[in-house]
Amino acid sequence: MEESMTLYQEHNTCRACGNRHLIPVFDLGYQALANCFRTPDEEPAPKAPLCVLYCETCTLAQLSVVVNPEILYSNYAYTTPSSTLQSHHMKRLADALFMDAAPRNHTALEIGSNDGAFLEVLRNRGCEKVWGCDPSMPQCVKALNERKIPSYNWLFSENTAVMPPMDIVVARHVFCHVDDWPDFIRGLIQVTHSQSLIAIEVPSTRVLVGQLLWDTIYHEHTSYLTLHAIGALLKGTPLRVDRVLDYDLHGGSVVYLLRYRDHAHTMTPVEESWITREDWMQFAKLAVGQRENLIRSVVRLRASDKVVAGYGAPAKATVVANACKWSSSDIKFVTDTTPEKVGKVLPGTDIVVVGDEMLELLQPDYAVMFAWNYHEEIRKAKHQYVKKGGAFIYPHGAPPL
Ligand SMILES: [Zn+2]
Hints:
Layout: E1 8-10, E2 23-32, E3 47-54, E4 61-63, E5 65-67, H1 69-72, H2 84-100, E6 107-111, H3 117-124, E7 129-133, H4 137-147, E8 151-152, E9 166-172, H5 181-190, E10 192-203, H6 205-210, E11 223-224, H7 227-234, E12 239-247, E13 253-260, H8 277-303, E14 308-311, H9 315-323, E15 333-336, E16 352-355, H10 358-362, E17 366-369, H11 375-381, H12 383-387, E18 391-393
Parallel strand pairs: 6-7, 6-9, 7-8, 9-10, 14-15, 14-17, 15-16, 17-18
Antiparallel strand pairs: 1-5, 2-3, 3-4, 4-11, 10-13, 12-13
This protein binds zinc ion.
């Protein structure tokens, strides 16, 4: 199917401000699509350029290409992970939204609602009516069957978003996957009224750059948003940034709360220092150094006959394994808790994904902690592995801050 479709298109004008002179700041070459898990006998995952461009006008960073969403999300195996970290975060976020929203019986829409987990939190918090919207039909069905949450089977856009205006509209980790931002904003205006609160949650670009989280750069994440960039995007629209919330989840998560410009809410001026071209250049230099260290560590361990495996097969695992050019002779296998990934290979490699229990059963000497964002929970769950002499290697050299 995908051979007849265009795999990707170049996008070299700034998505937020339209600047045509973007500067390449970090280039990982051609990389396999990070979530494209296939069995060893299937066609390998397709590859596309993975290069970050920086806009000096508004500070947005974006990938140089946009992969065709029909290919990128065709076998998308992501379900909102149920972890204590996630549920704690969802409760915090729901509280913050309720503090800011108008005092009334709220209605809420979540864009990219997945299996409805966050909408369930909002409903428990007192939202009278909640709706989801997600391009994945199985997730919409799951939300309805398991949580009684009605969901529109939409890929959110101005054309699809036809419904009465909502009091609260949430888009969690969706916005930076979207190519056509002006269309998305028009869609938001369509599903809101003058008193609505809009929450856009994205990974923190400041944390990414500051903590060298280069493995969180992959094709789904087409943009690396900043306050200046969203300001540039909203120029000339009825919306403005009202507040910015920072969370420490997932190596940094930022929520931009948007309101209508004529909303009476007292606006606290939000400010943010610029992430400069030099910051990105420094990031690229240090990230390359980190990758070289990682490659050397595994070479050294393999030379002394140590077995090295990987823990977790999130998109980050694909990025690191491909950047390090690892094969199954370097990393023997990768474990994961997602049944849909087991038995498939880490995209772009011949490293097979096995079930989570195999870490203790096979007891490799070392395991690269690809899922480092859950490392505290993982270390607790895998204390037997460590007790028996197993050790974790962190892609960034040390556990995350
Ligand atoms: Zn720009």
